[in-house]
Amino acid sequence: MTAHADVRTRADAGRALALSSEFKAFIARLHFYAGLFVGPFILVAALTGTLYVLTPQIESIIYREQLTAATTGEPATLAAQTEAARKHIGEGPRFFAIRPAPTAGQTTRVMFAQPGLGDSESRAIFVDPVSLAIKGGLIVYGTSGILPFRTQLDYLHRNLLLGEFGRNYSELAASWLWAVVLGGVLMWFWRRNSRAAERARANPALRDRRWHGLIGLTLSLGLVFLSITGLTWSNYAGDRIDALRANLGWVTPSVSLKLGAAPAADAHAHHSDHGPAVGTVAPGSVQQLDAVLSAAKAAGIDSPHVEMRPPRAEGQAWLVREYDRSWPTQVDTVALDPRDLSVVSRADFETFPLIAKLIRWGIDAHMGILFGWPNQLLMAGLGIALIVTTLLGYRIWWRQRPAPGSLPRTVVQAWLRLGWPGRVVAVAVAVGLGLALPLVGASLAAFLLVDLVRWRLARSA
C-alpha cells in the first residue's frame, strides 16, 4: 500500500514538474518573440523619451531671447501687455490666453489661436512686462507650453512625426513593455539558482543573458511605471482607461464655464481696487484681465504660474488655472463670472480623487517635470538602461539564432505542449488582453498567424 502511494506521489510530482517546465518554456517563447517584435518600437520610444526629458534646460538656452526681459521696474497692466501683443500680431488671430510673467526678468506670454496650427498649439507673443517691448513670437504646445524644439521631440516620441497614424507605434511599445518585463522577471527567478547562472559569469555567450536579466529585474518597477503611464494618454487603450475611470468615478474634476442668471447688482462694485471697475468695461474684455487675476488670487489661485483664458462666447466664464506641475502640484482652476468676477465653478487639486491625483503625478513624473532635475535624471537613466537591455536582447538572439535549415521553435509548439487546461487559460488571457489593449490583440494575432505558418511548414517538411 505504501509502495503504491509512493509510486503515485512520484508520478504526480513528475506531471507537476513537466507542467511547470512546459509553462516556463511557453513564457520563454512569448518573451523572446514579443521582445523581438516590439523591440524596435521600444528602442525608438526609449531614445526619443530620453532626449525629451533631458532638454528643458537646452530649450531655455535656445529661446533665451524670447523668455527673458531686460528691463526692471513696475510691470504694465496685463491689458496693456495684451494690447502690445495684439498690435504686433494684427487683428486676425483670436486672443486665446495669457500667461503673466511668473517672476521678474521673465516675459509674459500672450497666446493667440489662428488657422493652420495643430491641436493644442497656439502662437505666443513674448512681451517684456515693463517696457512692453516684443521679444519675439513662437508656436507653443500643450499645457506645459513647450516651445518648438521640445515640441518636435514630443511629436517624435508620440507619433514619429507621422500624425495620428504614428501614435500606434508608441501605444504598441507601451502596451507590450509591461508584458515583456513581467515575462523577463519570471524567467530570471526561474533561472536564478540554476547552474547556467553560475556558468554565465565565465561564459561570454551567457554573460549577455545575465546582464540582460539583471538590468531588466532591477528596473522592472520603473519600466512597468513607464508602460502604465504611457498608456493613459495613448489612443485606443487610453480611451478604455478613460471609460473605466468614468465608470468608477475616478475622473479628473473640471470646471464648468456656463453662466447662470445675471448676478445681483453690487452697490460697492465701483470701489474695487483690482483695476477698472467691473461695470465700466465690457464683460470678457481684455480690460478685465488685471481684475480677473486679482479675483482669482482672492479665490485661492496662489501659484505664480497662471494662465487666463477669456470667455469664448456669450454666457461663458473666464477660466484661470495654475499650470505648475512640479512638486507640490499646483493645478487648481477657477471659473469667474465676467459680470461681477464671482467664482461660478472651481476644481481644486486637493479635492481630486486619489486615482486622478496618481495619474496626474504619474504623467508628470513620466515627463520628467514632477521633481525637477532629479526626475529628469531618473527618467533618462530608465530610458538609457531600457535601450541597453533591449540591445542586449537582440545580441542574445543573434548569437543563439537557429542554424539555417533547423526546425523553428514556435510559440504554437510551446502552447500545444501545455495541455488543454493550460491552452484554455492562455487563450482566455490573450482575448482579455486584446479587448483591454487593442494593439496588443491586433499585433498578437498577426504575430501568431506568422508563427502558425512557420509551425505548419516545419511539420510538413
**Count of the domains:** 3
| Strand tally | 8
Largest sheet: 4 strands, antiparallel
- What's the average pLDDT? 89
Task: Provide the succession of SSEs.
Answer: HHHHEEEEHHHHHHHEEEEHHHHH
- Helix residue percentage: 55-70%
User: Segments where pLDDT lies below 50 for 5+ residues?
Assistant: 10-18, 266-277
> Given the helix and strand composition, which structural class is it?
alpha+beta
- Distance from first to last alpha carbon: 49 Å
Overall body shape:
elongated
Number of helices: 16
User: Roughly what fraction of the amino acids lie in strands?
Assistant: 5-15%
Describe the structure.
- This protein is α+β, with helices and mostly antiparallel strands and 461 residues long.
- It folds into 3 domains: 14-53 and 162-248 and 374-406; 64-146, Nuclear Transport Factor 2, Chain: A (Roll); 270-351, Nuclear Transport Factor 2, Chain: A, CATH 3.10.450.
- It has 16 helices and 8 strands.
- The strands form 2 sheets. It has a 4-stranded antiparallel sheet. It has a 4-stranded antiparallel sheet with strand order 5-6-7-8, covered by helices on one side.
- A hairpin with a 6-residue loop joins strand 3 (121-127) and strand 4 (134-141).
- Helix 1 (2-53) crosses helix 13 (373-399).
- It is elongated and about 85 Å long.
List the helices and strands and how they pair.
Layout: H1 2-53, H2 56-62, H3 64-67, H4 78-89, E1 94-99, E2 108-113, E3 121-127, E4 134-141, H5 148-159, H6 167-191, H7 195-200, H8 204-218, H9 220-232, H10 236-248, H11 289-298, E5 306-309, E6 318-322, E7 333-336, E8 343-347, H12 354-366, H13 373-399, H14 411-416, H15 420-436, H16 438-460
Antiparallel strand pairs: 1-2, 2-3, 3-4, 5-6, 6-7, 7-8
